Fold this protein.
Amino acid sequence: MAANKTENKTVATGASVDEFLAAVEHPVRREDGLRLLDLMSGITGQPAQMWGPTIVGFGEYHYKYETGREGDAPAVGFSPRKASLSLYGLIYGPEAAELLGRLGKHKTGAGCLYITKLDDVDEAVLAELVREGYRYVRTVLHHG
């Protein structure tokens, strides 16, 4: 059997989350990153961990696709990118569509939720998305 030729790029690195967030240039993204750090760590009960150079993740799960590709990924997480905040693990569960309808200004795509700034969304709805997304990824996704 041939070895999987593509290495997973998004792996836990052990880098400092605090240093990463402190180095975010855009002041709104930096502040929103600190708010998301508090929100996600509080809801998941998990310490923040850097995944790859730019993703702050909480908890993890193991995935294995029918193609044979497998690896580990953060259960939920975020990245304060230049154009917007990218949030991971929040749009898969059965409650996600209804919650996204009440969230406020956002976009979705490629398994991600994109928010320009946290002040554009209802933070209570976002907290529920984090709670439900974390539960779903840890108990249902890739466990079937």
Notes: The helical segments are 17-22, 27-44, 96-103, 123-139. The two ends are 25 Å apart (CA to CA).
